[in-house]
Structure formats: C-alpha cells, structure tokens
Amino acid sequence: MAATTVYKEPAPKVGHTENPLESMMSRFNVAAEILGLDDTTYEVLKAPDKQVIVNLPVSMDDGHVRVFEGYRVVHNTILGPSKGGIRYDKNVNLDEVKALAAWMTWKCAVVDIPYGGAKGGIICDPSTMSAGELERLTRAYTNSMKDVFGPDRDIPAPDMGTGPREMAWIMDEFSKTVGQTSSAVVTGKPLVMGGSLGRTEATGRGVMVSCLAAMSKLDMEVENTSVAIQGFGNVGSWTAKLMFDKGLKIKGVSDISGAYWNDNGINIDEAIAYKNMHAGRLDGFPGATPMDPNELLTSEVDVLVPAAVEDVITEHNAPYIKAKLIVEGANGPTAASADPIIYGKGISVVPDILANSGGVTVSYFEWVQNKQGFKWSQDMVTERADRIMTEAFEKVYAVSQKYNCSLRIAAYVVAIDKVAQTYKFRGGY
Ligand SMILES: NC(=O)C1=CN([C@@H]2O[C@H](COP(=O)(O)OP(=O)(O)OC[C@H]3O[C@@H](n4cnc5c(N)ncnc54)[C@H](OP(=O)(O)O)[C@@H]3O)[C@@H](O)[C@H]2O)C=CC1
Ligand SMILES: O=C(O)CCC(=O)C(=O)O
Q: Is the pTM of this model over 0.90?
C-alpha cells in the first residue's frame, strides 16, 4: 500500500514537542487541502464547539476533601449527538481531551454512524483510589455535566481507566437528576443493565478485523505473521486474544509493569488468566521473558499494535521500527513528527480513527438497543460490526488509491468530506 504512494504531509518542525492536538491538526490540514475545504467549514471544524472544565470536591476515605479537575469537550455535533469516552488518568490535560474529541468526530464519520465527537477526562490516578472514592468522583463529575450529557445530546462511554462499573454509576446518577431511568445516556454499561453483548471486546475485534483487511492488501499470510502489542488493558488484551485465536503469533506484549517476549509466541489465554489473578498486571508472567519496554516498539515483528497511550511512536524511534504494518489500537499513538519517517520506510499504518472504531460502533448498537428496548444477539452484533469495519476499511483504502496518499490521510479525507457535505445540506452559518 504505502510503498506506491506519494507522501503529502508537512515535514516536522525542528524541536517539535509532541502534542496530540498539533498532531491531529497537521493531518486535518493535509486532508482539508486535498479536499479543497472551504474556509468557513475549516474554521468551524478546527476548534471544538464546547469545552467544559469542572472542579470536583470529593471526600476521600481518610476524611479529607480533595478537589479534582475534570473536562468534557464536545468537538462537533453536525452528524448527531456527540459521542466519546471518559478517561481517568494522571496525565489528562485539556489539549489531549480536545484532540481526542476531534478524533471521535472523524472516527464516527469514517464508520458512518450518526454521531458527532466528544471526549471527557479527569486528572486522577485510579490505581491509587478506592472503589468508594472513584464512585464519589464519578457521581460528582456526572452531576457537574448534567446539562452536557443526555441520550440525544452527548453520550459518554469508557476510555482508559474507566469501564462498565463507572458507566453504571454515570447512568444511575444521571437518571436521578432527570427523575427517570435513562439507559441510553451512556454506553459500555454492564450487560444486566442495558449493556450490549460484544461491547467489551468490540474495539479489539475491530483492530483485528482491520489488521486482517490490511494484511490481505499486503499479501501477508496469517500463519507467518508475528505481532507485538503495547498495552494489555481492554483494547490490547482483546486484540491479542482475538489475533491469537485467528492464528497470528503474538511475540511481545506490555503493560505499565513492563514488556514481555516469547520468540515462539505467547499463549494469550494464559497471559490473560495470569493478569486476572495478579491485580491486572503481567509482572512475573512465566510464559514470556521480560524485555526493555522501549524495545518492544522496534522489535523484530511483522505487525505492531500500539494500544496504550498517545505519542509513543515519534521521530526518535520511528527510524528503528521493523514492522511492515502498524495497526493503531490506541488513539493518537503516532506523533505527526513520525509520519514522514514511517511513510518513507514503506510501513503501512491503519490509523486510529479507522482501526479502533469498532468500540464506538458497538456503543452505537448499544444506544440503538436501549432506544428500541430490545436486545440483539451476539451474532447480530458481531456480524454487523465486522461488516461496518470491513466496509470502512475498503472505503478508506479506495480513497488512499484515488489521492495517492496514506491510509491515515485517506481516513481524514473520508471523515471531513462527510462532515463538510452535511454542513452544505444543513446550512446554518
Ligand atoms: N476502551 C475502548 O473501547 C477504546 C479505547 N481506545 C483507546 O485505546 C487505548 C487504550 O485504552 P483501554 O484499553 O480502554 O485502556 P485500559 O485502561 O483498559 O488499558 C490501558 C493499558 O495500557 C497500559 N499502559 C498505560 N501506559 C502504558 C505505557 N506507557 N506503556 C505500556 N503500557 C501502558 C496499561 O497498563 P496497566 O494496566 O498496567 O496500567 C493498560 O494495560 C487508549 O488510547 C484509548 O483511548 C480507543 C477506542 C475505544
Ligand atoms: O464507545 C464510545 O462511545 C467511544 C469510545 C472511545 O472513547 C473511543 O473510540 O475513543
């Protein structure tokens, strides 16, 4: 794929400090130029519609009150109510949330689901907080956002550091403020209370499906393909499990405790069982040997799946990457400064806004089911999600061929074109 196309992104600035918002904007600018996007739509899309910053006083277990800062950024709602996860992490910041919100707009447009984009975050370290503290924090955040959230306004979901438990608290707290049970206000809920079959594994499944689609374009065979995966949380562990079940050889995995390597392939069922029995960490896993986490990204594998945080692939390590294919499970794992290097090496990249869009796709199914008051079977969810992922991949691939550009720029072109066309029909400015 990439080897036959011409690179079209601006060269990195000298001394560039990685910033996900700048990375998002530099790709957006290239796609806008390809499309000949009009100035008004460009100005509307380059900044978020709404940015909310809240102060959240929370009683801690030791009796003192700690004040947390939280954000919700709504990037755009021209395609429908805004959608996007909530991140709990000590490194959350407003620029990051703004980039993540814009990526949600592009992602929903790429898979053609009727949502705009948003993202939320709270600066906190969930690994050091008790369940009670996290519940009080989540309820305080939901209360502060009661005029932002709504089943037809803005619909949160899980992201790093959050999962079904937090989504259940959000649903309960929001329902209390509106005086009726409001299942469709949030997705990624536990199954018993309106969650969808298939949501937990949906993002990893989409990563696996788009990886196989890209491998087929590159004539890569499943049996001979080795993989390294950074991050072993929801996205990383499900990607690993589903790729392992398909017969790919997962040689390296990592989490915050370190990286682990087995040249003969890691038994992912054993790795997940070990993690579940050891406080969610792989530390001490006997089925692989510890390695330097920095070396995982440049290890001798065919496919690299970054599935943890932003900006892990930069101009500094990109020259040493050996994989032929990068499939971005995480949002924004590749800084824009690395793009020309990766492209120049002929490495294909299935970009985040395509590769990890399986999660929001099944969130959309959950929202539809909540509104219908009807539950879909696992087969129905899987078949529909796989079809959407495959069609989105083929569409992005065709655009990359048409404009002779990378899959990343092609995905932005598909997304921005849909949003811009909708603005033309709806008017309003
Ligand atoms: N959940 C979803 O449905 C979706 C998530 N994403 C994106 O996928 C990425 C991961 O999210 P998710 O899996 O939900 O988050 P989780 O919190 O479930 O998992 C994050 C994983 O990354 C690990 N990690 C964190 N920092 C590092 C690091 N520096 N090096 C290696 N591993 C690290 C964590 O380790 P440890 O557990 O040891 O702390 C954990 O294994 C994020 O970019 C998120 O935005 C995108 C689409 C949907
Ligand atoms: O499931 C969702 O609604 C959003 C998931 C998310 O935050 C993401 O795709 O980055």
A: yes
Q: What is the mean pLDDT of residues 165-191?
A: 98
For CA atoms 402, 405, 406, 412, give the dihedral sign. Answer: negative
**3-state DSSP helix/strand/coil % of the chain, to nearest 5:** 50, 15, 35
Asked whether the beta carbons of 121 and 157 are under 8 A apart, the reply is no
Using CB atoms within 10 Å of the CB of residue 50, give its burial: 0 to 12 exposed, 13 to 18 middle, 19+ buried. Answer: middle
Å from CA of 220 to ligand 2 middle: 29
Mean pLDDT in the chain? Answer: 95
Nearest ligand by distance to the CA of 365:
2
Minimal-distance CA residue to ligand 2 atom 4: 84
Planar angle of CA 324, 327, 332, nearest 5 degrees: 120
Burial class (CB in 10 A: 0-12, 13-18, 19+), 258: middle
d(CA 275, CA 287): 12
Looking at residue 429, what is its pLDDT?
Answer: 76
**What phi and psi values does residue 82 have, to the nearest 5 degrees?**
-80, 150
User: Looking at the chain, how many residues does it have?
Assistant: 429
- Reduced to 3 states (helix: H, G, I; strand: E, B; else coil), residue 357 is coil
Binding residues for NAD(+): 203, 234
- The set of residues, in sequence order, having a beta carbon less than 8 Å from that of 107 and lying 6+ positions away, is 117, 352, 353, 354, 356, 357, 360, 415
Top-tier CATH class for 48-196: alpha beta
Q: Which of 349, 391, 307 is nearest to 211 (CA)?
A: 349
Ligand 2 center from residue 40 Cα (angstroms): 28
- Average pLDDT for 256-260: 97
Q: Which of 50, 98, 119, 324 is catalytic?
A: 119
Specify the pLDDT at position 9: 41
Q: Is the CB of 196 under 6 A from ligand 2?
A: no
Which atom of ligand 2 is closest in space to residue 331's alpha carbon? Answer: 10
Over the stretch 361-396, which tens digit does the pLDDT of each residue have? 999 999 999 999 999 999 999 999 999 999 999 999
In the sheet that holds 226-230, the strands lie side by side as: 289-291, 258-261, 249-255, 226-230, 303-306, 325-327, 348-350
Q: What pLDDT score does 18 carry?
A: 77
The two most distant CA atoms of the chain are separated, in Å, by: 62
Which tokens hold the place of 403?
């404009």
d(CA 298, CA 2): 19
Three-state SS at 184 = helix
For residue 119, indicate whether it is catalytic. Answer: yes
